[in-house]
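User: Modeling request: complex.
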Amino acid sequence: MPHQVALTVRGPLRPGNEVEGALDTLQGVLSPGKGDFAALGSVHFARVFLLPGDDTLAVGPTLVYMADVDAPVEAHLRRLAELDDGALATVLACWAGYAEGDLAARVSWLCAHRVPAAATYVHQIGRDLDRVLAEAELRREISDYLDGQGWEDHTDVEVHRAVRGFVASRPDLTWALDAPAGTELLFRLRESTHAVGVLALALLALPVITPLLPAWALAIALREARDVPETEPADPAAVARLLAIEDQAVQNPFTAAGTIKQGMVRAVTMRTVLLGLDWACRHLYGHEDLAGVRSIHFARWVPVDDGRRMIFASSYDGSQESYMDDFIDRLAWGINAVFSNGEGFPATRLLVGGGARDEQAFKNYLRRHQLPSVWYSAYPTLSARNIDDDTRLRDGLRRDLGTRAAQEWLARI
Amino acid sequence: MSVQDTTTNALTTAGTPKGGRSRTALSAVLDTDEVQGLVARGYGRLPNAAFSLYTVTHAPSAQALLGGWADEVDTVGRRNAVAALDVALTAPGLLALGLPPAQLAGFAPAFVEGMVSPHRSRILGDTGENDPSTWAWGGPRSDAIHVVVLVYAASAEGLAERLAELDARTTGALRLIVRHDTDVLADREPFGFADGISQPRIADPTAAEPTDIPPGEFVLGYRNAYDQYTWRPLLPPSADPDGILPLDVEGSGARDLGRNGTYLVFRQLAQDVDGFWEFVRNRTASPGSDSGDDTGTAEHLAARMVGRWRSGAPLVLAPDHDDPTQRGRDFVYAPDLAGLACPRGAHIRRVNPRDSLEPVGSSRADVDRHRLLRRARSYTAPRPDNEGPSRGLHFLCLNANIARQYEFVQHTWINDPTFDGLRDDADPLLGPARERGRTFTVQARPVRHRHRNLPAFVRVRGGAYFFLPSRSALRYLATVN
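Assistant: Request completed. Predicted assembly structure:
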């Protein structure tokens, strides 16, 4: 099974582009699970959006393409470069110097404009798109099979066995009786090395870092005292543009950008926190749960402009109101550690206190920094919990179950 | 239909004594002479009520009316034994009275935008048959709603008198758009289920019980569930030179137009009572039983959809048959997380999930940030086609943060088809009809039962968001120009 890759491509706009009209057109023809994005294959979620320029950084507006795709990412880039017509191709043609080239030139343009993520969260590492869709189909088939007859006179164990028999009798479903393949060997080796390597380096660095901690805490506290949090609500017209595309599916996109606070202390803090976050996402949280929150499918933190700005992008279940409440109620410390290095964030105390816990200031902050995007979902009716349940259903088919396990298994249908 | 009760019982009508809280405790918490009475009570002792919706036709006269009402509205501290009056305004109503548009900015965005933006219609489920374009009032096709006057009375005659007086006084200032009569308050909502069983209680900080909700969840200018002050309209001192409004309790020096006020959500929900009972009868084999075990009967399916039996007894405590002795007893879902007694998608489990949401350990605290004070009354209205009366609920509720409370409950708990791990299950009573069909899943062993293609039993006929001002705010609004 391929692992998932958080692809980001960012490029400047060519002169005379009509990118806003092209994005509107793309939004208009967008169709969940179908259309240009689906044709690219192995795309879980994708989005394109305009990242406004920043005068103080002397950066103009850029067009950003993001996709959560299954490896190898090269195959995806090639299919993207092959797009010649259609609404998505028209949007991408707004990149300066992209569309003019032949296929090979476009692929190398895309590669040259890739931006690495500093941290990436995947709800279930290694569960590729084909598997998500196939397991959802498997659950539908099992569900319909169970609806087809009465089971009152059967025990849980007997029903489970009957379902196994049903699946075995269906040539199109027998794949489900085998364990899913693990992620690629090379990927696993890389990840294990990373898990151990970063931890070892951190332990080695500990004697050096620890004596510096009081000085760092003082430096942060001094800066926090000087920081100016934004308190104003977002511009209603800007919020209206965001709301126009929200709550069409079970999931929603969140895309935001902000400027990192000036200075070495903030820059080093940010890098360190992202390093830890990346490590935690890859080795602790890649199994259906981001620190207690089970409703996020994918998330990424992408520094741009030499680390002076950062883009955060995610795909999550439910409304933005419930998403923000999860942040406040469960993830405030983590959100603070990263985002308080951004200008305008609600006041924090020693990086992790306060901040997102100031409910309305935090919600205003997110709305102020949020960017509208054209966003695609390959499975718009499936919550992360639905997908997890589908996987457990499939996993339970490989052996006979005892009464209790059979009951739990049947409860997921 | 009800709906939305975020508390336990959803089908709610107005407050029974149980739902209320004693005046002594509330007076320790709120400015009792400032907060309108609806916050403290559902007027269970005033069983006759009518809700009148108006457009402002002459602002100065309307302002004079408000100024008069400031002295007459029922308040938390002043209870009238024979009649009560509460007044609330929409955002267009505030502008029509002369409030400068800049002063609207501090109100909740949902209130300022109103209930019928396309996005709001999506999250509230006001699509298809519920689309605001089909509404009798509050939608784009009806006259603008500016003011609602809620009148309650002990007797029908008393109500008629009050309404005649209201009509005389509003002439020349307000034009009546629609007057909603209500049923004489009973303890049943139109589907036949006991109502008004559980309401959140406002915490008294001097003697808080763990289940009580901080006053700032229901009244602006007090500490909310995050121990913070909910966003509210704070005006520069120059906007209130006479100092009619109280100062911002947070010490900014601003005048607080919001303090002691709150938001009133008003939705008219028509209930297809015959359709509901026909549905449960058609989907169950046996009509009923005399043996005392109602398992599998139409009554049982109806109870499973609601989460309570007709008497109000919760299924968690009375899984097999109605047991009126269990009515009103507090309960938790911990023994029934699987939903075998009370289905996970049952109405009362969605409007107040109590301890059942993941992560279960923090469910209570999470749920308590999404509570509503329900103030609904049912209605029976004749229909022109002589097909029998139309019945339903005037769903009213109060909350300080519309987005985090009312809209969250409506979107994330009532309408979301994936609530608590389900798949196509919106609320079995309130969920709007969907293209893919609506499912109600009854968890069971060995295999759950899916009721597919549920019709819609409730139709939204109108709605609007109102601001229920304090008496000071009413006086202030009477003077702006």
